[in-house]
Amino acid sequence: MTVFRTLLGLLYVVFAGYTVAVMAEHGVNFIPAFLGQLAALNWSGQINLDFLIYVLIGAGWIAWRHQFSPGGIALAVLALSGVLTFVPYLFIVSVQAQGDVRTLFLGRERAQRSIA
Questions:
Q1: Burial degree of 114 (CB within 10 A; 0-12, 13-18, 19+)
Q2: Dihedral of CA 68/15/100/98: which sign?
Q3: Fewer CB within 10 A of the end CB, N or C, for the chain?
Q4: Using an 8 Å Cβ cutoff, are 68 and 61 in contact?
Q5: Interval 79-107: pLDDT, tens
Q6: What is the CB neighbour count within 10 angstroms for residue 72?
Q7: pTM score, two decimals?
């Protein structure tokens, strides 16, 4: 789990740095650029669509992991912003899981039920 958390930290730092550089160059209004690439039906749009699908699946997993509780849905909505919220979420739940991958993926309640 230490390697996983180290990788998460490294990915977060790289992505955050890249994001700051892009924001300094192009500003924070990414929605028109994102949607424009989708509408253009080019490779950049394909990558954006791939990212969008990944984010939706990740948010769905977070909501499911928390059994669609109000807190879980709130976390899922936050995760829709992408790596800058999803990576810290993974880091925190990996610490809470205390090295148990089943708990990491399923959540504490489901993991305990699956053992019984």
A1: exposed
A2: negative
A3: C
A4: no
A5: 999 999 999 999 999 999 998 999 999 99
A6: 16
A7: 0.88
Candidates 18, 3, 9; CA nearest to 92 is 9
Alpha carbon distance 91, 78 (integer Å): 15
Reduced 3-state DSSP string for the chain: CHHHHHHHHHHHHHHHHHHHHHHHHHCCCCHHHHHHHHHHCCHHHHHHHHHHHHHHHHHHHHHHHCCCCHHHHHHHHHHCCCHHHHHHHHHHHHHHCCCCHHHHHHCHHHHHHHHC
User: In Å, how far from its chain's centre is CA 86?
Assistant: 3
List the structure tokens of 98. 């205390």
Residue-wise pLDDT for 43-54, tens only, equals 999 999 999 999
